[in-house]
Design brief:
The protein is of the alpha+beta class and 419 residues long. Helix content is 29%, strand content 16%. The strands form 4 sheets. It has a 7-stranded antiparallel β-sheet, sandwiched between helices. Strands 5-7-6 form a 3-stranded antiparallel β-sheet. The protein has a two-stranded antiparallel ribbon with strand order 8-9.
């Protein structure tokens, strides 16, 4: 499809890149983010039916607006990391190396302790395992020590009988899945991601950033969830301030300092692997790694996974109207967020409205990567100014909405985009 190079000034930023004609309305929304929605720096990419359809970047990597965002700028994408880890897990499932319905202890024998005999791998992936946080006090910097956190998790008693409730495993997800992964493969999720997905696709995504890539990294303006008034007021944020033993409070305050302060921007934290939340990427990288899973598993002359695996990636595995960590509605396939409509809740920007078959993962403050097999798109957005929302913020949802409208989708009143 015909397209155009993009080079436009949007005070106080400039936007560069390329878009085919179909997605020009998405270019306009990206520009509107800088004009009206306080965007600082960002990148956006879309593949459609296996071909690059839009690739944009704009703004600045610093709050003083002195250094422009470039085509290869990287930024922390927070919990969009979980989707990258899940892609790795599904490759193992497709190859018969990982059974999602096997007990976790089949791969990690020590995990059986304290009532976790019935915990299955699928319960890690769909956030029903019962270890959304740790009760045992975590030492300062603890989440940077993979072995230390895994030992705590193996000995921890779950908050609920595994599989009987749903609560976002905001940080523990990565260590739980990562240790199962390591027991099977002898390697880490980050190493597997590079070798099996990122390098074959030339995708700029990293879990565990090498020093050689650090010069390309933008800081993210990290808003502490423990600061009153910074985040949308929910029951979860209320509990952070009022009940230190609650799951939301332990998520933030028992993280060894990782979920507070500026840890996500530190070289030390970016160099290790936290497969729940410390990936570095850009919009093109996120869209590229999801691209094979938007086109029946066939991409660039390679069959990446079979149809059964693709169906499993998009099928809802757990759902709740009251997530035990976030206190909003959540819907999950195995490892991925599904479209979820919380507009009824009165909590601004607590939804993520995608197509009904789409699967992916967003990150705190606004990043998002997903695939939609129904319309053959993969989507990646990464930015460096966090929005204070528990779901996908307006500046990201507006890009998603414009993408679906460009493809002829007419309504999202049902909670997902429909033609």
């Amino acid at each position: 499809m015909a397209g155009n190079d993009i080079d436009m000034a949007v005070e106080p930023a400039s936007i560069k890149g390329w878009s085919n004609n179909l997605f020009h309305p998405v270019v306009e929304e990206f520009a509107k983010n800088f004009r009206e929605r306080d965007e600082l720096g960002a990148s956006l990419c879309i593949y459609h039916e296996g071909r690059l359809a839009l690739d944009l970047h704009g703004g600045h990597v610093d709050s003083a607006r002195q250094q422009p965002w470039t085509t290869d700028t990287l930024v922390p994408v927070m919990s969009s990391t979980k989707g990258l880890a899940a892609l790795c897990a599904h490759l193992l499932i497709d190859r018969g190396q990982l059974d999602p319905e096997a007990p976790v202890s089949e791969y990690w024998p020590e995990f059986v302790a304290n009532g976790k005999e019935l915990a299955r791998v699928s319960m890690i992936l769909n956030h029903s395992l019962g270890l959304p946080v740790l009760k045992t006090p975590v030492k300062q910097g603890g989440f940077l020590d993979f072995d230390y956190i895994c030992e705590l998790l193996a000995n921890e008693k779950p908050f609920w009988k595994p599989g009987t409730s749903v609560g976002y495993h905001g940080l523990t997800y990565g260590h739980l899945l990562g240790e199962v992964f390591r027991r099977i493969t002898g390697t880490t999720i980050g190493q597997f991601l590079r070798r099996e997905i990122a390098e074959p696709l030339s995708a700029d995504v990293w879990i565990g950033l090498p020093e050689s890539e650090r010069s390309r990294v933008s800081r993210i303006e990290f808003i502490e969830p423990s600061e009153k008034g910074n985040w949308a007021e929910t029951e979860s944020t209320r509990l952070i301030h009022s009940d230190p033993e609650s799951i939301p409070a332990l998520f933030v305050l028992n993280s060894g300092g990782y979920a507070t302060g500026d840890a996500v921007n530190s070289a030390e934290a970016q160099a290790v692997e936290i497969p729940a939340g410390n990936a570095l990427a850009n919009g093109r990288g996120l869209a590229t790694v999801y691209a094979p899973f938007a086109t029946s598993g066939q991409f660039r002359d390679k069959q990446w996974v079979g149809q059964d695996t693709l169906y499993r990636m998009e099928e809802v595995s757990s759902a709740t109207s009251l997530d035990q960590t976030l206190y909003i509605g959540t819907r999950w396939s195995l490892g991925f967020q599904k479209s979820v409509d919380n507009r009824w809740s009165g909590i601004p920007e607590s939804s993520m409205v995608l197509g009904s078959r789409a699967f992916g993962h967003g990150g705190a403050g606004g990043s998002l990567g997903f695939a939609d097999p129904e319309c053959g798109i993969s989507f990646g957005y990464a930015m460096n100014r966090m929005a204070p929302t528990p779901g996908v913020p307006e500046k990201c949802q507006a890009l998603v909405d414009a993408t679906y409208r460009a493809l002829g989708y007419r309504s999202c009143g049902s909670g997902s985009w429909r033609r």
